[in-house]
Specification:
3-stranded antiparallel beta sheet
Amino acid sequence: MRSSFPDGTALPRPEGLQQRSNNLFWTNLTGCHNTIIRLHHVAPAKKYYAVARGRATGIFSAWFGTGNAEEQVRGFAGARYKGFADIEEARIWLREQQSAPNKKRTARKPRPDATAARTATAVSSHDADVIIYTDGGCSCNPGPGGYGAVILAGGKRRELSGGFKHTTNNRMELMACIVALKSITPGASVLVHSDSQYVVNGISKGWAARWRAQGWMRTKTDAAENYDLWQELLDVCAPLNVRFAWVKGHAGNPENECCDQLATQALASAHTARDKNFESGRTTVTA
């Protein structure tokens, strides 16, 4: 997760984080820190979206809205698209995609491990009531950290973010999922996209459930890290039908990029909280 501009200049704290208005307010969702919730429509940072394969193809200047990029790719099998800050770069990419030959692939019987990987990550969003994207990270690791989440449900969009004074990347990835899922009505079908294989595999491959069954031990001698947050994540998943899917970070996915920016802004905010369990060393079980 980025904490500075490409030239190394630190990112400034974004304006408006301390304001109270109809569109921005603070709430204590987790019981231990403040969380920013934006309820107004916020477009992703990318300005141009090139769709090479979708219901309609071309370059779109907005992600959401009638006839814009999101409508062309959501639920479209094999959709191919990418966000750009420069329209000429978008045009070049689109031309390259459209001129590339379509190679027919010979069907092969997948290896068992490949099948398991697809089951955990390549999940359809058609039957999900709620789509969630999350990201988290920190500067220096450990150091100041932040998380961001985007929730899409019923044609509406919500953004969540929060920051901590001293924490780790993995804890912020977990916290993003926890805070987002806590806001969902029990019984809902939820698809969570995360660029953290630590989080996705921890749930999809049953690692966290196994660690809990073993008293939060990975092996007989090795304790599971961040058991406090894994416990909380398992608890918030229990009343929901939740699936986790891995998405590659910094690869042009508009919602993942938006989460990254939310997390970066949160860690730079003056309103960061203390990760008390991490600071006091209570992230693993003790004998």
